[in-house]
Design brief:
Helix content is about 45%, strand content about 15%. The chain has eight helices and seven strands. The protein has a seven-stranded parallel beta sheet with strand order 3-2-1-4-5-6-7, sandwiched between helices. It binds NADP nicotinamide-adenine-dinucleotide phosphate. The site of NADP nicotinamide-adenine-dinucleotide phosphate (NAP) has 31 residues, from helix 1, helix 4 and helix 6.
C-alpha cells in the first residue's frame, strides 16, 4: 500500500535523534524518500541504515550537515537533487539550546543559538524555495518553533537566547507563507511544549511529559501531507500537554 508521502522527497534536519529521527522514520514508512541531516555523521548514518533495513529498500540517505553553514546547506540540497530530484518537503527541525542566566549570557552562546536555530532555518528554507520554485510543483516547509517562541505560555529562566531564536522561527514561517503563496509552497510551524528528548533534559529537566517524539512527528506529517492540509499555510499549531 503506498503511503501518504508516495513519490515525495523530504529533507529533515536534526534527524540524528529526538523529534527529527522520529519524523524521518515516519516519513519513510509513509513512502517518502528521506534525506537526514545533522552534524554527527555516525548517529545519522545509523538512523538511515536502520530505516533502510526496516523497509528493505534504500529510501533514507544521511548527509552530514551543519545547518548554520551556508556551503554545507547548499551541499545538502545539491546532494538531494542529484540523488533523488528536487525537494518537496523540508522539516526545519535542527536546534540547540544553552541554559544561561541572562546576566551571564555570553556573545558566543547567543550567536551560536541564533546561527543554528534561525540562520539554519533561513538557509535551508531558502534552498528549498529555490528548488521548489524551479521545479514548479509547490512544496511544504514545516518549521519547528516552541511554546518558548509564542506569546503567552510560561517561559523559563536561562533560556533567553533560545526563546528569542524560536520567536524568530515563528516570524520566518509567517513571512515565508506569504512569499511561498504564488508558488504553492505551504509554510507552517509547530510549537510544542515539553517533549521527551535530550533537549528537554538539558533545557528544563524539572518538566516531565508524556509527549514523545513520535507524537510530534504525526503533527509534522499532517502539514507535510498535501491531502490532509492542502489549503493550510501560515498556521502554527501549539501543542500543550493534557496531563495533569
Ligand atoms: N524537546 C522539547 O521539549 C521541545 C519543545 C519545543 C520545541 N522543540 C523543538 O523541536 C526540535 C527538535 O528538538 P528535540 O527535542 O528533538 O532536540 P534534540 O533531541 O536535542 O535534537 C536536536 C537535533 O538537532 C541537531 N542539530 C543541532 N545542531 C545542529 C546543527 N548545527 N546542524 C544540524 N543539526 C543540528 C542534533 O544533531 P547533531 O548533534 O548530530 O547535529 C539533533 O539531531 C527543535 O527545533 C526544538 O527547538 C523541542
Amino acid at each position: 500500500m503506498p503511503g501518504a508521502l508516495e513519490n515525495k522527497i523530504a529533507i529533515v534536519t536534526g534527524a540524528s535523534r529526538g523529534i527529527g529521527a522520529a519524523t524521518a522514520r515516519l516519513f519513510a514508512q509513509e513512502s517518502a524518500t528521506v534525506v537526514l541531516a545533522s552534524r554527527s555523521e555516525k548517529r545519522l548514518q545509523a538512523i538511515a541504515d536502520d530505516i533502510n533495513r526496516g523497509l528493505k529498500q534504500r529510501r533514507a540517505l544521511a548527509v552530514p550537515t551543519d545547518v548554520s553553514k551556508e556551503d554545507q546547506v547548499r551541499r545538502l540540497f545539491e546532494t538531494t537533487k542529484a540523488s533523488f530530484g528536487c525537494v518537496d518537503i523540508l522539516v526545519n527541525n535542527a536546534a540547540v539550546v544553552e541554559v544561561r542566566d541572562f546576566v551571564d549570557m555570553d556573545l558566543q552562546t547567543w550567536e551560536e543559538t541564533m546561527a543554528v536555530n534561525v540562520r539554519g532555518a533561513f538557509l535551508c528554507a531558502r534552498e528549498a524555495f529555490r528548488q521548489m520554485i524551479a521545479a514548479g510543483k509547490g512544496g511544504a516547509i514545516i518549521n519547528m518553533t516552541s511554546l518558548s517562541g509564542v506569546r503567552g505560555p510560561e517561559k523559563f529562566p536561562g533560556l533567553s537566547a533560545y526563546v528569542v531564536s524560536k520567536y524568530g522561527v515563528l516570524g520566518l514561517s509567517d513571512i515565508l507563507a506569504v512569499e511561498g503563496k504564488p508558488y504553492n509552497i505551504r509554510v507552517n510551524s509547530i510549537a510544542p511544549g515539553a517533549v521527551d528528548t535530550a533537549m528537554l533534559k538539558k533545557a528544563a529537566p524539572f518538566l516531565s511529559t508524556k509527549i514523545k517524539p513520535d507524537d510530534i512527528a504525526k503533527t509534522i506529517l499532517f502539514f507535510a501531507d498535501e491531502k490532509q492540509s492542502a489549503h493550510i499555510s501560515g498556521a502554527n499549531i501549539e501543542i500543550f500537554s493534557n496531563e495533569s
